[in-house]
Write a structure and sequence with these properties.
- GO terms for molecular function: hydrolase activity, acting on carbon-nitrogen (but not peptide) bonds.
- It comes from Algoriphagus hitonicola.
- This is Amidohydrolase 3 domain-containing protein.
- This protein has 567 residues and is α/β, with parallel strands linked by helices.
- Among the domains are: 97 residues, Diaminopimelate Epimerase, Chain A, domain 1 (Roll), CATH 3.10.310; 290 residues, Alpha-Beta Barrel (TIM Barrel).
- It is 34% helix and 22% strand.
- It contains 19 helices and 27 strands.
- The strands form 5 sheets. An 8-stranded parallel beta sheet has the order 8-18-19-20-21-22-23-24.
- It is globular and about 80 Å long.
- It starts with a helix and ends with a strand.
Length: 567
């Protein structure tokens, strides 16, 4: 009798111990097609999460064993999961403000732009500024009758807005379009002289009589931009809220903000402290504020090793313009504008000074360079800074865009360990007309050369440069693997030998992005011990036919184990 009781007790204890895991997961994600970006274990079915970190990966049966009574079980129902996507170059507040102003990204003609301005004027008070962004004359399906140096003129804009100053930024952010009222307020009138229209680092586009057309390129835009009323704190909070919502809806869990001031850092920190920061932020200090850089040199980088939500350890320098407004700084003349080679928008001496100061203090330098001259000049200055600081071996300096590179400079990225922070969507949007700017040889030899850079040993990251392009990563992924326009042309893609594989494209949007912010040990792949940041898609972007990729939607976004968006 006593033995029977003892055996029953042992059986009860054994049953109790096996009825659940000792350390149950907070969440388990099961029944998925999960691409881990972990070379040693590339594809699994399920993931267990504890305290916002990945606890286990494996088959659904294996992971279900981590589920306890309080575990949240999330059935992926065969959907595709990847590591959380990392937007490696975009403008956080620009995404939000773009939703509060005139969004001209999808405008197809000049007349449509004028119509949108007219509608805004009707709702505005006399004297109110009309602002917006997103127009791109080379993407219009038809060009205006009157064009000067490849741009429209502002006569029609003046007709619909006589009393309201209008200031509309180009999609690239490297040009602007103003009406006569705004130009008058800025003191810009008929100009003549030896070098009419030129200002340091930019140009006021003039007609044959010396009259301003309303188009201002590069730093000339500041002549009007400085008159636009400053944003209010309330409007800034609204813009940030809208930007964060847009990011989670597009599956983005980490974001590299390409150049902001202390006001944005403070606002993001406020959101973090209030529990409203749903996307991890890696903010670059704007190089347009030298006094800001000096302040940060004194206090050093701010690296968030606690919850990894807000880090400031890099500096953004804007060194040339963009190809669209012919502002990218070239070694040879523009193919479609002889005698013009673009603009150096920042003295190269500043790149030298910042690089040599930043390196020993632990700051990363991220320099915007689109033209081959700008890329070469920056590489030269990085190389000199590295030589002066040989002990700083893990610098991870970056060139943002690296869009057009002289063939001799391509291998230098890998040799020097310089990251090419590129945006594949620019190939899709720009390549049809970029050949007019550079000519066929320069395009083939050094434009959008993803494979050449990767074969040099360079890390290539991905993104959108939003609000230059929509922040949606799906079109950029599509461009990475097809090198086609979003309309699916040409049939085999532009310079097809430079396509990424789907595995390379996914890595450029995940683990390579994490590497570019020194976080590859914390996130960027689905491995035990890393952050539970996931993006879930409604179809398998790694296997569906090319033409189906653009139909993909984000079904769920998870940051630190928490579902921050569900469709």
């Amino acid at each position: 009798m006593r033995n029977t009781y003892f055996l029953a007790l042992l059986a009860f204890i054994g049953f109790s111990c096996s009825s659940g895991p000792e350390n149950p997961a907070d969440q388990v994600f099961i029944n998925g097609i999960i691409y881990t970006v972990d070379e040693s274990n590339p594809k699994v079915e399920a993931v267990a999460v504890k305290d916002g970190m990945i606890q286990a990966v494996g088959t659904t049966a294996e992971i279900q064993e981590w589920a306890g009574e309080t575990t949240e079980v999330i059935d992926l129902e065969g959907k595709t999961m990847t590591p959380g996507l990392i937007e490696s170059h975009a403008h956080l507040m620009g995404i939000g403000y773009n939703k509060l102003e005139l969004d001209l990204m999808y405008v197809k003609t000049y007349d449509e732009l004028v119509e949108k301005v007219a509608e805004a004027v009707e709702k505005a008070q006399p004297g109110d500024w009309i602002t917006g962004r997103g127009w791109h004359q080379d993407k219009w399906i038809e060009k205006p009758e009157k064009m000067v140096k490849g741009f429209q003129t502002n006569e029609k804009l003046n007709e619909v807005s006589k009393d309201n100053p209008v200031f509309l930024r180009h999609a690239s952010g490297h040009a602007s379009f103003a009406n006569a009222k705004a130009l008058e307020m800025a003191g810009i009138a008929n100009l003549s002289g030896e070098r009419p229209g030129e200002v340091e680092g930019g140009e006021i586009i003039l007609d044959d009589l010396g009259n301003p057309t309303g188009v201002l390129t590069e730093r000339a835009s500041n002549l009007v931009a400085r008159l636009v009323p400053e944003e209010t704190p309330e409007r800034a909070e609204e813009a940030l809220t809208l930007a964060l919502q847009e990011l989670v809806e597009k599956g983005i869990t980490s974001f590299h903000d390409a150049g902001s001031g202390q006001d944005v850092i403070d606002l993001v920190e406020k959101f973090k402290n209030e529990g409203k920061l749903t996307v991890r932020q890696y903010i670059m200090l704007t190089g347009r504020q030298p006094e800001l850089l000096e302040e940060w040199y004194q206090k050093g980088p701010m690296i968030d090793t606690a919850d990894h939500l807000l880090t400031v350890r890099s500096i953004k320098l804007n060194c040339d313009g963009a190809l669209g407004p012919r502002g990218a700084w070239l070694l040879e003349d523009y193919y479609d504008r002889p005698g013009h080679r673009g603009h150096e928008t920042l003295p190269m001496s500043v790149v030298t000074e910042v690089s040599e100061k930043a390196l020993p203090l632990g700051f990363q330098v991220c320099s915007h360079a689109i033209g081959d001259r700008a890329n070469q000049e920056i590489l030269d200055r990085y190389e000199a800074a590295f030589a002066k600081n040989p002990e700083a071996t893990d610098h991870r300096f970056r060139i943002e865009h690296a869009q057009h590179i002289h063939p001799d400079d391509i291998p230098r990225f890998g040799e020097m360990g310089v990251i090419a922070a590129m945006q594949a969507i620019h190939l899709s949007s720009d390549r049809p007309w970029a050949i007019d700017r550079l000519g066929e040889k320069r395009i083939i030899d050094g434009a959008y050369v993803w494979q050449k850079l990767m074969k040099s040993g360079a890390v290539v990251t991905n993104g959108t440069d939003a609000p230059v392009e929509p922040v949606d990563p799906i079109p950029s992924f599509y461009a990475s693997v097809t090198r086609k326009t979003l309309e699916g042309t040409p049939e085999n893609g532009y310079e097809a030998d430079q396509k990424m594989t789907r595995e390379e494209a996914l890595k450029s949007y995940t683990l390579d992005g994490a590497y570019a912010e020194f976080e590859e040990d914390f996130k960027g792949s689905i491995e035990v011990g890393k952050a539970a940041d996931f993006t879930v898609f409604d179809q398998n972007i790694m296997e569906v036919p090319e033409e189906e990729i653009l139909k993909t939607k984000v079904a769920m976004t998870v940051m630190g184990g928490k579902v921050v968006f569900k469709r």
